[in-house]
Amino acid sequence: MRFVLAIVAFVVAAVMIVAGIAQRTVFAPPSQVTAAATVPADTRYVVIDSAVLNAHPGQQTLSVSGSKNAKTQMVAYGRTADVKAWLADQKYATIAYRAGDSAVTVKTVTPKSGSTGSSGAASTATPAPTATATPAPTGAATTQAAAPGPNPAGSDLWLDEFDGQDAQVTKMNVPSGVSVIVAGDGTAPAPDKIVLTWPVDTSTPWAFPLIIGGLVLLVIGIALYLWGLYTHRKSRGPRRKSGPKMPKLPKAPKYKPTASIEATPRGRRSTRRTRVMAPALLAGVLALTGTGAGAAFAETSTPTPTPTPTATSSAPHGNANSPAPAVTAPQLERIVKRISVAAANADAKNDPNLAKLRFAGPALQLRDANYAIRVKKADQPALPAIPAGPLELSLPQATDSWPRTVTAVVKMPNDATGKAQAPLALALVQQTPRDNYMVEYAIALEPNVKVPNLAPASIGAAVVPPDSKLLKVQPDQVAAAYGDILLNGEKSKWYSSFDLTDDKLVAQVGASWKAQEQARLAQQFGQTSTLTFAGRVGSGPVISMATNDSGAIVWVNPEEVQLHRVTEAGAQVIAGATTAALSGVAQSNTGIESVYGYQLAFYVPPAGSDEKVRLLGFAQGLVSAREVP
Q: What is the pTM of this model?
C-alpha cells in the first residue's frame, strides 16, 4: 500500500510542478497590448481621446514616429473641450479603438465652412466638426496646400507637454475627459505612425503554490517509498519453524465476588481500563468547561463597532455639473515659470517687444515706461523680477469659456541684504484658447495682509461682473472711489467705506502728501508755477474674483495726473530726472504733465457687511510724461 501511495504522490507532484512551470513559461500571458495606427501623411494634428487611451487598464505608453523633423514634433494632453477649442478651424485626425477586435480606425475631422480660429476672434465657441472616414493610408505623402496652421507647442492650455525627442515615447495616465494632441509645428505634418501600448497583468498566482505543493508531495512520496522499502526488506528476514502445539490447560473456575465485597481490579488490565477511562472523563470535563467558557465569553465580549458612513462627493470638484478650474496647480506652476523666463529676458534687454510676449494692460504699461527710463537713466532701478516659484496661493476661475482669469501669489526671494520681501501677486488673463496667459497686474502684497477665505484651487472661483451690486462697492467704481480718497482724503464721500488704518499707499501719495508738495513748491518758487493733481481711471481691465464669504478680490487701474504748469512769464519748470528721461524734456517754459499708474488689489466685502474695503497690495510708477503747450 505504501508503494501505491508513493507512486500516486510522485504522479501528482509531477503534474503540479509541470503545471506551475508551464504557467510561467508556455502559458504565460503577453506582457502588453499594442495598437498601431498610421494617419495620412499630410495630417498636421492628431487627437486621441481618453476613451481610446483607457481602452485597457494601466499606464498608457504613446510612441510616435515618422516625422520629417523630429525636433518639431510634440505630444501634449489637455481637457478634451480645450483641445477642440484650440483646434477650432483646423482639420485634424482622430483615432478610434475597438477593444473587442483590437481594430484601430482613423477619421478626419473637417470644420464646417465659415469657422474661424479663436486666437483672434471675439467669439470662442468651438465649431461643430464634421467627421469623415479616412481610408487606410497608402504611404504616399501628399502636399498640404492650405496655409500654415498654428503651432501648439508652448501653449498654456496643455496640462503637460513633451517636445522633440521627449515626444517619441510618452508614458501617461490620462483620466476621462482628457485628450492627447500629436502635432508638428503647425506647418510640417504630424508624426504619421502612432503606437499605443498598455501593460497586461502577467501575474500567475497559482504557479508558486503549485510548484511548492508539488515539491512537498515529491518529498512525501520519497518518504513513503523508503518506508515501504524498509518494511518490505524487514518482512523478508529468517523465521524459525514452530514445533508441535502445546495442549491447552483446563480452565480454572472463575471467581465471582459477592455484591457486598468490592472488587478491586489488579494487574495490567486494570491499568489499561484506567487509562481508557481517564481520557474519556477528561474529554467530558473539557466539554462542560468549554460550554461554560463559551457562554461566559459571549456575555462579556466587546460589541463590534458599527462604522458610520461618511458622505463623499463622487464629482471631482464637488458638483459634476460645475465647470472645472481654468488651470491645475502643476499647470499654473509651469505657466509662472514661463512668465518668469520671459520677464527676465525682457528686463535684461529693456526690450518692450519681449515684454509683450507675457505682459499686457497696466503691467505692460509700467514695464514699458521703466525700460524707456532705464535706457537714458542707468541708475534707475528695475521693476521687481517675476520669480519662478514657489506658489503660495492660486485661485483659478471656474469656467469652460474665454477669457479666463487666474490669480497667483508667488513667494519672493530675500533681497540683497537677506531681508524678506513681500509676496508678489499676479492677475493672469487668457483671452482665447490659442493665446497664452498674460500678466495684467503684478503687485507686491501689503505686509501682514489679511487674505480673505478663498475657494480651493481644485474648485476655482467665479468672476464677479464689474457692475455687480452685491458688493459694498461696485467693482467698476472701486478705482474712482479710491482715487478720490487719494485726492481729497477725509473730504471724500468714499472715505468711510475704506479701511485706511494700515494703508501705506495713502500715507505715501495721499491728500496730505499732495498738500505738502504744493506747499513746498510755493515756498521755494513762489507763484511762478502751480502743481495740480487729478485722478482718472486707467485702461486696465476690472478683474473681480469671488471669495467664500460672498465678497470679491478686485483688481483696478486708477491713474493720477500731475500737472506742473508755468504761471509767470519767463519762469521755467524743471523736470525731475525720471520725468526728464521719460519725456525727453529737462525743462519747459510752459509745463510738464506726468502720469502715474497704479495697480491695486482690494478686498471688497459683500453688501450689508460691517467690514470695509481694504487694500491688499499695490504697484505704482511713472507711466508717461510730456511737455504741455
A: 0.76
